[in-house]
Structure formats: structure tokens, C-alpha cells
Amino acid sequence: MGCTRAETPMPTPAPVQIRVTSDAAALPLMRALTDAYAAAQPNTNFVLEWGNAPAVMEAMRLGRAQLGIVSVLPSTINQGTDNRNKLWFTDLATDSLVVIVNSQNKLNNLSTFELREIYAGSRSRWRDVDPTMGDDIDLGAREVNDPTRVLFESVVMNKLAPSPNAIVLPSIDIMVSFVALQPAAIGYVPASRVFNEPRVKIVRIDDTLPNPETLNNGKYPMPIPIYVVANSEPQDEVRKFAAWAIGPNGQAVATKLGYSPIK
User: Fold this and answer.
1) Distance CA 149, CA 13 (A)
2) Based on the domain organization, do 78 and 148 belong to the same domain?
3) Are 167 and 179 in contact (CB under 8 A)?
4) CA-based angle 78:82:88, to the nearest 5?
5) What is the CATH number of the domain that holds 130?
6) Do 106 and 212 have their domain in common?
7) Measured distance CA(61)–CA(81) in Å, rounded
8) Are 146 and 243 within one domain?
9) What separation in angstroms does the CA of 211 have from each of 40, 50, 191, 222?
């Protein structure tokens, strides 16, 4: 009777830990990407931290994170000439900055000129925009140097100073809640953060809403590019995750959250 050789058992894959970081604007995307990747690769787990864009770069510089995503061009982050020259980054997705009003507000469209005058304080009541509307406008703004405020003011304000009556709000979530709870409020946030938010309404700017076509052709004026960043080109398991994120599976995750995929 012949003898058979037992199959060599397959070794259990060694656990892999990847340390990632995200700026606050892109945090839901990073969470969704890491959750989806960990579901597909059960031996991989992630340690996630978040903050503003400079904090993301600081976490990587100090070795607390191996990979990050940011909604600010990496070359604009104050990180020192030496680090900037070595920085690796690639496109991940495109978000957009949108103007939001309370869902009860009947306003659907603003011209850039009207929006500028609202935030400069020249039009302080809704009837200054539409004679059939009343109430003073409750302006919501982000803090100085916040990336969304920088983008909004560079595109909309044309060097005009914002109204001192604007209420400065310290986070995206607080901005959404402010507009959702105040019928006369207006604010601005990344589109992905209100993709399925029934309490607020996105206002068209110059008759245009953000979508892949209007972002790609430049008709919508406030795109927010999202980047994957690292101190140097990723290797090994970190490289696999980065490639997955910018590939079809990661792009499907981004699209489901309301981001426009990379071209």
C-alpha cells in the first residue's frame, strides 16, 4: 500500500498594521477606505489619527503615520524646504466646496456676485436677494486659515473683507448643524459632508452644481482636490493600500461617499 504525503499547511498571514492620518475634511473618506480595505484584507488593521493639514504632515514627520490624505495641496503646507522636496503625493479624488442653506429656505441659486455681497455684509437680509423672502441672514464662516475658508475667499470674495457679523464656526460638523438649526443661515462645507444630509440644501452657484463634468471642465469654481501623501514613495503593505485606494475599488468607495473619482 502506497503512502501519501500530507499537504504542508499554509502559514497564517502575519498581522499587518498601517498607521494613517487624515485632515478633518477628508476624514470620512479615510475611514471608509480603511474599513473597506480591512474587510478585504482581514490580516491588515489600521491606526488612524486626524487633525488639520499641517498636523497630518507633522504626524508623518514624527513617524506616527506612514500615509495620509489631505485636502490642501501638499506643496502649500508649511513643513520646511527639505521635507517638501522629498514629499510623495498622488491624486485620490475630488471633493468640492458648496454653499448650503437650511432645507426650509426656498433659495436654489446664487450668482457669485450675490454670494460675495452676502458675505461682505452688503446684503444682510434674505429679501435683499429675493423680495419674497424675509429675515436677516445668519452668516456662518470657518476660522482664519481653515482650507475651506481660504478657498471660499479666494474664489468668491475678490479680496473683499468678510462681514464682521459672520459667526466663526470651528468645525465642518458644527457648520452643518448651524445651518440645519437656523432657518435663515448660510454656510459653506465640502460637498461630501452633506451628500446625504436632508437638513440642509446645496445652493447652485451661477446655475451650476458640482458633479464630475462641471468639476472636470472648470464650470464649477470651487473644487477640492484630495491627495494621498507620504514622506517618500510608499513600499510594501503601505504601497499595496495606496495602490488599492487610487484603483477601481478605492475609487468606488470614494464615489459612494459623493466624491468625484480621479480621471
Assistant:
1) 46
2) no
3) no
4) 80
5) 3.40.190.10
6) yes
7) 13
8) no
9) 29, 27, 10, 11
Number of structural domains in the chain = 2
* 136 Cβ contact partners less than 8 Å away, ≥ 6 residues apart: 124, 125, 126, 184
- The whole model's pTM is what? 0.82
Residue 3 is assigned to a structural domain of this protein: no
Q: Which of 189, 117, 196 is nearest to 158 (CA)?
A: 117
Torsion angle defined by CA atoms of residues 115, 116, 122 and 126, in that order, rounded to the nearest 10 degrees: 10
Dihedral sign, Cα of residue 30, residue 177, residue 259, residue 112: negative
Cell of 173: 460638523
Q: For 187-242, write each residue's pLDDT tens digit.
A: 999 999 998 899 999 999 999 999 888 988 889 999 999 999 999 999 999 999 99
CA distance 35 to 45: 9
Kindly report the CA angle at 245 between 242 and 170, in degrees rounded to 5? 100
